[in-house]
Amino acid sequence: MTETGSTDTGKARRSDATRAAILTAARERFAADGYERATIRAIAADAHIDPSMVMRYYGNKEKLFAAAAEFDLRLPDLTGVPREEVGTRLTAHLVDRWEHDDTLMALLRAGVTNQAAAERMRQLFAAQLGPVVAALVADRAEAPLRAGLVATQALGFALTRYVLCLPPVVALDRAAVVAWLGPTIQRYLTGEQDA
Amino acid sequence: MTETGSTDTGKARRSDATRAAILTAARERFAADGYERATIRAIAADAHIDPSMVMRYYGNKEKLFAAAAEFDLRLPDLTGVPREEVGTRLTAHLVDRWEHDDTLMALLRAGVTNQAAAERMRQLFAAQLGPVVAALVADRAEAPLRAGLVATQALGFALTRYVLCLPPVVALDRAAVVAWLGPTIQRYLTGEQDA
DNA sequence: ACTGTAGGCCAACACCTGTTGACATGTCGA
DNA sequence: TCGACATGTCAACAGGTGTTGGCCTACAGT
To answer: Is the CB of B45 under 7 A from strand D?
Structure first.
């Protein structure tokens, strides 16, 4: 394998642009078509290169997806936010994150039929959402459950709005989304189980 | 085409068992693998027949899916239920429906990558959940939106529990699911937008 | 100027897919 | 008994898939 050190800030290689183009095209295809329908050939065509280049740079389709599905939710620190506002704040952030990055869509579409993608999704919520929630709740043992509940609503919203495109859900503007989903997320984060 | 009248209650044909076996196998495969990974060959093997029989009886893969994805939510009439209980009642019913029938799973897994399946899902919520919600809300114009919101939470729960298998969500028992999701559904059905 | 090597393309492979048509078998009415 | 028709099997097709290896070209270091 050619030197691909992750830590070195060495000189840029001539192929870096190509690598990036492949990754971008891969994200778009995986997001639009899911794992199996996103073909290496189509991704290569989008990146204006030969399919064999994809193999050379990323080994195989699985590894390409793994590289393309690297994602950071960039969750804000909610400990400084008034407790009654954390639901709306988190909701607004998630919606924004979803609308400005294909990666989550790729993860969602692929995660439904691909085991590795599903595992990624699990890690995403456990490793990134989990800690943020843990810093918020009184009993830290409750954190994974509460993070999971948030995931049900967040992913369900994304699924119905961006994938299945249920018309009434698509029609909602940002403010309405936050107004409707915010209190739900708030309750999952800070509320009691008994209504 | 052989006589396949939909209205006739004529004598059962010898091939009806085969037809049913194909449909059952198709539902299981579509539910487990999604649309593209569920192959005609695998379905035929499960049904212990030749792949060409699937084609003869259902024409092509698309039509087979259409037949396999026929589904009735069997939603109860909620007009007689105390208003503050409709959320938990609907939640409990949906969970039960989901756990005892592969069809919804097939619809969900396929709907993420297949247009026809997504369209089915849209019709399902519009035609079956819509009216039930409409009978419940004061302003009927709000019904589609409220049904859509219910869909976000219901499908999101199914996605995280049965497809992505987030551990904390999988761990919930039936009572806990109803206790957590019930109030959310209740608010989407009968609550005001401003918390 | 020469050469090694990285970057890129082409053709091919082995496999799997949906789909088709020819052929065998069984069943039931005339 | 015989023939029509439903039921089922087998083999093959045309196209698409991930993946591989050989070949060409241009640039960087000497």
So the answer is: no
| The total number of residues written for chain B in this structure | 195
Residues of A in contact with B164 (CB under 8 A): 111-112, 118, 121-122, 155
Task: Assess whether pLDDT exceeds 50 at residue B43.
Answer: yes
Same domain, residue pair B64 and B95: no
Query: Could you give the percent of chain A with pLDDT greater than 90?
Result: 89
Would you tell me the crossing angle of helices B61-68 and B16-37 to the nearest 10 degrees? 110
Domain range holding A145?
83-190
A77 in a domain, yes or no? no
Q: What is the pLDDT of residues B129-181, one digit of tens each?
A: 999 999 999 999 999 999 999 999 999 999 999 999 999 999 999 999 999 99
Distance CA A156, CA B157 (A): 7
Kindly determine whether residue A34 and residue B187, on different chains, have CB atoms separated by under 8 Å. no
Strand C nucleotides with an atom less than 7 Å from a protein beta carbon = 6-11, 16-22, 27-28
Say how far residue A36 (Cα) sits from the centre of its chain: 19
Q: Which two tokens stand for residue A134?
A: 């843990």
pLDDT-based confidence at B11, cuts 50/70/90?
low
**Chain A CB contacts of B124 below 8 Å:** none
A55 touches strand D (CB under 7 A): yes
**What's B45's domain CATH number?**
1.10.10.60
**Residue B60 included in any domain:** yes
- Please, which residues have CB within 8 angstroms of residue B97's CB and are 6 or more apart in sequence? B73, B74, B104
Cβ of B55 near strand C (under 7 Å)? The reply is yes
* Interatomic separation, CA of residue A21 and C1' of nucleotide D26, rounded (Å): 21
Same domain, A40 and A97: no
Which B residues 53-82 have CB within 7 Å of strand D?
53, 56
Total structural domains within chain B: 2
| Whether residue A89 sits in one domain with residue A62 | no
Query: Hey, what are B41's tokens?
Result: 């060959």
| Interface contact B165-A118, CB threshold 8 A | yes
Cα–Cα–Cα angle for A46, A52, A58, rounded to 5 degrees: 85
Mark whether B176 and B98 lie in a shared domain.
yes
Q: CB under 8 Å to B165, separation ≥6 — which residues?
A: A118, A122
